[in-house]
Design a protein that fits this description.
Elements: H1 12-31, H2 48-51, E1 54-62, H3 65-70, H4 74-77, E2 79-85, E3 91-95, H5 99-144
Antiparallel strand pairs: 1-2, 2-3
Helix pairs in contact: 1-5
Subunit structure: Interacts with AURKA, AURKB, BIRC5 and INCENP. May be a component of the CPC at least composed of BIRC5/survivin, CDCA8/borealin, INCENP and AURKB/Aurora-B.
Family: Belongs to the JTB family.
Signal peptide: 1-30
Amino acid sequence: MPAGAGRRGLPPGRRLCWLLCAFTLKLCQAEAPVREEKLSVSTSGLPCWMAEEFVVAEECTPCSTFQAKTTPECGSTGYVEKITCSLSKRNGFKSCRSALMEQHLFWKFEGTVIGVALVFACLVIIRQRQLDRRALEKVRKQIESI
């Protein structure tokens, strides 16, 4: 008989484990929707802060509703800082990650980890009870057969 011929897929406990792992992976990917900005080879299309030194004129602040619609830098994180490039003296905006946003993401992650840990702890307890019942039933049958 070939290996696995009598099986019909994963046992229910393993299916649940794989389902939870897939869900957790999907949830973690959705946590940080920051997209990467594409770099071009020529410096003419680059913002000045990528090609030269800059000074932060205004610290990282949340974008206003107007800025969110008009400034492309607001799209990735929702926060921008106003910068002044040293050589060209141009003013511009640069996307940034605020400490408050990082703190919220950290606590979301911690909550997810604790939730997943609780789910798996419950699964371990349930499985241990099943195994204990099986062992007691086995012992009971052995005692009855005497």
